[in-house]
What we know:
Number of helices: 9
Number of strands: 0
Helix content: over 70%
Number of domains: 1
Structural class: mainly alpha
Radius of gyration: 26 Å
Amino acid sequence: MVHFMQFSFLSQFKSLGTAFILAIVMIAVYWAGFKFSSRQKNRNTSDGFGPVEGALLGLLALLLAFTFSMSASRYDTRRQVLIEEANIIGTAILRADLYPATERSSFRADFKEYLETRIAYYEAGFDPEKVEANLERSAIISAKIWDRAAVLAQNRDNLIPSNQMVPALNEMIDIVTTRNAARHATVPDSILWMLFVLCLVSSFLVGYNRNEIAASWVVIIVFALMISASIFIILDLDRPSQGLITLEEANKNIISLRSMFENAQ
């Protein structure tokens, strides 16, 4: 049975759009902080908020680095699992050739259909319905292949091919769960929300500590764009199926397995 896992709430939004909105809001919050401070005529900008501003900016930098490390690690894990699955499926397809012609043809027909479901799984991106549909379809086909291998394993004439095929099928079935878990292992929403809040609070304090002479729109625009660009990279690494950073190169290893059926006699 396929156990479907829900994607996180923030996964529903495009990383580029999220980063752009964040940049706009940061500039607006900076302006609000500046206007709020300008109404306090007796405010001394050197007291109180200077150390707080530095501490918050340091905390923001630390959380950005931590979150980037998390998303990069998850991206690399997904890439490695995808390549591993391509190798496992390819091995199982090759081991079908150890059986007599009739069984070999049946195995290869099912493997071809199974391969298409795994390609469609990647192309489904973050569409929950398509992801679930492809998981269920691949589970049905893999169960069909397993049942055939189990029946053939009871025949002593198939002892050698069965000893080779059964472990390969075990790995092929298990890697689906591993890949699905890796796909859903995004940076927790709570960490991203904390990052967004820190960005806005830092922008407010930066604006609050500026006076009319020192206020520089160039500085805040560059600050907002750089922070938003960093968060865009974090989100894009965390969701490689829907942004500019993808797993297309790794997925080509699975797509290339189609050639194993095109060259079959």
